[in-house]
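User: What would this chain look like folded?
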Amino acid sequence: MSNNSIIAVAIDGPSASGKSTVARLSARELGFHYVDSGSLYRGLTWKCLREGVDTEDPAAVIELVNRTKLDFFVEEGAIRFTLDGEDPGAQIRSMPVQERVSDVAAIPEVRARIVQHLRETTRFGNVVMEGRDIGTVVFPDTPFKFYLDADPEERARRRHQELAQTAGDTTVDNVLASLQRRDRKDSTRKTAPLQIALGAKVIDSTAMQAEDVVRIVVAQVRGALSAT
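Assistant: Here's the prediction, encoded as structure tokens.
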């Protein structure tokens, strides 16, 4: 962490491993701000799709990112953002966005810009941030690193439940196939691939309730802070 007075808790892992729920609840328990780093990549992907920008054309995506104004604010304990003054809301979790977000996230220039924005969120105070490279790239020096994982089938079931309202016609098998494609892209990309950060505590949440994982995270952070 660049500022020793600010605490950043990093929670990484693949899609639908429980990161969002665990990070949100952990932030609430600790009194920190919750940050969903993936929402920035999904938001920019949504922006690309809305404006007809080909997500497989890096130059076009970079041009859009460079001209898009991101504004950050705190709402109900979470750090949120608008794109050119507009909040895309739940649309960033639609299947079209899910299918294309890895294309956008794989572009080095886009990642560099997003990492800068993510680090700057600490101006609002202590954060619990979830994503895929928080412990490896965004806050590599934080002592609070966690990596959540779960069986692919369980992750597909969780994501299918999330998508039920926005993509009701999808199936668990379709979601599983989409997650597997996303995993391959995220783990094999050249820039900031998905991997376990050095020193991270690995938690397999397949058979765990979110609250059980939260207790582990909160206990480790509070225990370390009380010892200083």
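The first strand starts at residue 8 and ends at 12. If you want, I can go into more detail on any region.
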